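Team,

Forwarding the record for the chain on the shared tracking sheet. I've put the sequence and predicted structure together so nobody has to dig through attachments.
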Amino acid sequence: KTAREHFEEEGINRVVLATDGDFNVGITDRNDLIGLIEREAKSGIFLSVLGFGMGNLKDGNLEGLADKGNGNYAYIDNLKEAQKVLVQQAGSTLVTIAKDVKIQVEFNPAKVGAYRLIGYENRVMPAEHFNDDTKDAGEIGAGHTVTALYEIVPKGKPINTQGVDPMRYQAQGQTAEPQNATPLAEEAESNELLNLKLRYKPPKEDVSKLIEFPVEDSDRAFADASTDLRFAASVASFGMILRDSPYKGGSSFDSILEIARSSRGEDEHGYRSEFVQLVELAKALQ
């Protein structure tokens, strides 16, 4: 009600909710709450959620509510995290530059025989939803960066089936070959590794815009990759080890520490150094 009364047509209209997620006052039914948040988001009042507390925190619920409100969710466990979310990253927290952002990646079957998206299990949507503007997706704030990592198997290389049950109709130790061995498009014969599509809506519009561009294989070694990419890879490897993923391969705490330490870069606010300390702690606990 307060946000409606003070609505600014050209301003930032956002409710910031700080809570442990245990809703026992006012609207307590989750479906009713989601309905309210979605209606207000369509009117231009967005919702950001900050999670506080331990033990009773409803983390999954809070992230879901922020998604419905075209906002973001962050968990605040100490003063440093509060400074990160509310000071250093205030622009991406408060100013939305694109809503319902969807990413679709098509790999070139002449180059890639198999692929796997690492993480984002709760963000994957059916391919047909990409062009459907009625389907809700994530928001991007000013200065916000999203990183998606894929593990790929080049065409003709063996697929790692460790931890996977034997297949009934295919021989074990198969190689990564595309289903259609004769690519139909001439682009498949180029050096393109993948085609990236991005669909988004401007904050005050309901019709999406599409941008796309192909990405070529630069044929560089991992050691020559950017510090950002190498550090992101170390974080992903850490997550797979903690979950004991069958896809963790030869990753270890030592290999993660080696990559993370060598790719800290400037690390102005010390976030990457904090991650290194977290891995060191996990290694010690092991």
